[in-house]
Specification:
alpha+beta, 9 helices
């Protein structure tokens, strides 16, 4: 008899294999159907989705993160799974919630999570807010997937968060350590100040703005409703 994890994996796989789901993802993200379909098909073929996380909501969130990264990779179908793994493994380089000045004051920074884990948490937070009767403090989230040159020698990811009555919060991830300019007057950079003048060395990428991204989050949850993989 299949266990619960096998059943939830099968439910998610069935969803990802359908043409209807792929077309709706393309519609909500405002992208070409072929671009979305090729990305999802490549992840299925590589065995990257459905993921094996036994937590129901966690598994769907990781799948959503991987699909988003695969779509944003904009590479040949045979390279999508490989580039998606590179995006997933990116580490935090700049976090305005953790200014370098904090470390200079003797307070150790938090351990960085991967870009994939950050995206997955974003999906789960969206679903928690939808279930809760209390309004979320986060108004919107935006995600960008970028590359340093046409060969993709260095990959970047950004996550923007807007909260009520607060300035925008930004996190920058990269596949290689980011070379930052020297801070004025020496010392350590305060990342809030750094982002006012610093620009990532990129030549292109894919930007997912808040409303389409929220629509994609909702579509994932809607797609598994009334199945064993439901997050509600």
């Amino acid at each position: 008899m299949p266990d619960e994890t096998d059943e939830t994996n099968a439910a998610r796989r069935k969803l990802f294999e359908t043409k209807k789901f792929r077309n709706e993802v393309a519609e909500r993200l405002g992208l070409a159907k072929a671009m979305v379909s090729n990305a999802i098909a490549a992840l299925l073929q590589a065995g990257s989705i459905p993921c094996t996380n036994p937590d129901i909501a966690g598994a769907l969130a990781v799948d959503g993160a991987r699909i988003l990264m695969a779509i944003g990779s904009q590479v040949r179908p045979d390279a999508i799974a490989r580039v998606t793994k590179r995006f997933a493994a990116m580490t935090s380089q700049i976090d305005v919630d953790e200014p370098k000045a904090v470390a200079a004051a003797g307070i150790p920074p938090r351990e960085s999570v991967s870009f994939e884990a950050e995206l997955a948490a974003m999906f789960q937070n969206s679903w928690k807010a939808a279930r809760s009767a209390l309004p979320s403090s986060i108004n919107a989230m935006g995600v960008s997937l970028l590359w340093h040159d046409p060969r993709g020698s260095i990959l970047f990811g950004t996550i923007d968060r807007w909260e009520r009555e607060k300035p925008r919060h930004k996190k920058i991830y990269a596949s290689e350590p980011l070379q930052l300019p020297s801070p004025p007057g020496g010392g350590e950079w305060d990342f809030v100040l750094l982002l006012d003048s610093f620009r990532l060395p990129t030549v292109g990428g894919t930007i997912f703005s808040p409303l389409p991204l929220l629509g994609f989050c909702e579509l994932l949850a809607e797609g598994v409703e009334e199945t064993v993989a439901s997050v509600f």
